[in-house]
Amino acid sequence: MDDNRRYYSLDALRGSMMMLGIVLHGSQWYISEPPGGLPVPTDPSTAYVFDVIVHFIHSFRMPLFFVLAGFFTSLLVQKRGLRGTYANRGSRILSPLLVSCLTILPLTMLAMIAFMGSAKFNTFQVLPSMEQINILKAEISAAGVPVDQPSLGHLWFLYYLLYFYLLIPLCMGLVWLLKKADADVGKVIASPLLYIPLVMYSAATLWAFRGGVLFEGFLFVKPHLPALLYYGSFFVFGYVFHNFRQILVTFNHSLNGFLVISVILLPLAIMATANEFAMADVDPQTHAVAVALNACLTWSLIYLFMGLFLRFLDYKSPWILYISNSSYWVYLIHMPIVTMIAWLLLPFDLPALIKFPIVVLSTTLICFSSYHYWIQDSWVSQLLNGVRFNHAWPWQENAASNVAK
After folding, report:
1. pLDDT band at 404 (very low <50, low <70, confident <90, very high)
2. To the nearest 10°, the Cα dihedral for 329, 367, 396, 317?
3. Which of 83, 213, 319, 336 is most buried, with most CB under 10 Å away?
């Protein structure tokens, strides 16, 4: 069945997941106990609330993003065909990735070196000495991070999307098999009980990761097969969901139940992960608990946020349109800005609860201002979105609409 609907709610959700990167990456500099897969120096001012924020956002943000990526890829295949989809993804994903690797990524790496060197050695300099850099590399390498490999930083998700697009023919075949297998397969997928096999599958793909969370492996050019399997599965699920859209009704109707489940699971998953990271040796039972709880939390939050946006934000709005169109640019540019502002705040003896909002609010202001005044009607917007825009600020659009009424 052709799908000509505009998914305002899912557009807003996809944009929101990208913009949550500002909060996530702002929080990581103030966590009190960096996890094993994220052995980076932090600001001297820390607070445990940022450990909670990082775990919470990281548990669902990218899995949900890839579900949405698969969903909208299926929609694109339906509208443009396989060849048209690959041409579109080449121009909207591959080209921005290549340009960003030559422009934004070097700025990001410079900002991170400045922050980590200054935080580690209690200095305030853009470039640490070679001796300090070697000490940093040795400590990070000792934690299992492959420092000899080139890193894509926050651009890794574009790189992984290119791999996932290779799965489109397999996704098409899977959908064909599901539709041919049983006329009631749509009812099975739409059942809230689907949550159970989804959790079981994700738990199996999470087993390779200590603490049941992904803080390692996926940032580098060399493909990390466990991460590809884990995140690629969500892409495939999203592709299937678009072809059995009854599940969107389930997301909406089960919102309250998954809100309760998520509230219960979050502290349990955080404690289970912390328990495993605190152990010197791997304990299979502790690992199994952490994996199971985090897999349950991930899918609970996916159901929750899909339902939340479908119920309350599925309508045309200047705010939704603006967020959808600006989020790509905001995500690409936010990382060097977040890190540089955090670096600028290092010398100041302020609580983390004050530094963090300064980082997030300043980054948000810079990102959106740059989009509004320089990017939206430029070649960059053409590169990222395939079209140039001339948006007014959303509140101005609302005011104009009210006057017209």
Report:
1. very low
2. 40
3. 213
pTM of the model: 0.95
- In eight-state DSSP terms, residue 192 is G
pLDDT number for residue 403: 46
d(CA 12, CA 26): 21
List the Cα angle 184/186/190 in 5-degree steps: 120
The SS3 of residue 210 is helix
pLDDT, tens digit, 9 for 90 and up, residues 232-272: 999 999 999 999 999 999 999 999 999 999 999 999 999 99
Q: Nearest 5 degrees, angle CA 293-CA 12-CA 172? A: 70
Q: Taking a C-beta distance cutoff of 8 angstroms, is the pair 155, 97 a contact? A: yes
- 384 phi, psi to nearest 5 deg: -80, -40
- Nearest CA to 117 among 108, 126, 109, 106? 126
Three-class SS of residue 222? coil
* Contact criterion met (CB below 8 Å) for 29 and 43: yes
Q: Which residues contact 80 (CB under 8 A, 6 or more apart)?
A: 87, 88
**Tokens representing 163?**
């791999």
Confidence of residue 399 (pLDDT cuts 50, 70, 90): low
The separation between CA 146 and the C-alpha centre of its own chain, rounded to angstroms, equals 22
**SS3 at position 151:** strand
Distance, CA of 63 to CA of 302 (rounded, Å): 8
The mean per-residue pLDDT over the stretch 310-321 comes to 93
Domain ranges of the chain: 8-404
Counting Cα atoms < 13 Å in the Cβ hemisphere of 184 gives 2
Beta bridge partners, 220, equal 151
